[in-house]
Design goal:
The protein has 2 helices and no strands. The chain has about 55 residues and is mostly helical. The two termini are about 15 Å apart. This is Arc family DNA binding domain-containing protein.
Length: about 55
């Protein structure tokens, strides 16, 4: 498994609050939710390859 790199993110408080709620609704950490959404957007835009099972 590839090692994850720490990254500092500045974000508007309202956006963070909405992300925290969304993450909790889907039983993810806030960090996990952000990573999930970024990964999904990158795949949809063809910026990274989807992993097929």
């Amino acid at each position: 498994m590839a090692q994850k790199k720490p990254f500092v993110l500045r974000i508007e408080p309202e956006i963070l609050k909405a992300l925290e709620k969304w993450a909790a609704d889907e039983f993810r950490s806030t960090n996990g939710q952000i990573e999930f959404l970024l990964s999904k957007a990158l795949k949809e835009e063809g910026r990274v390859k989807s992993k097929t099972k």
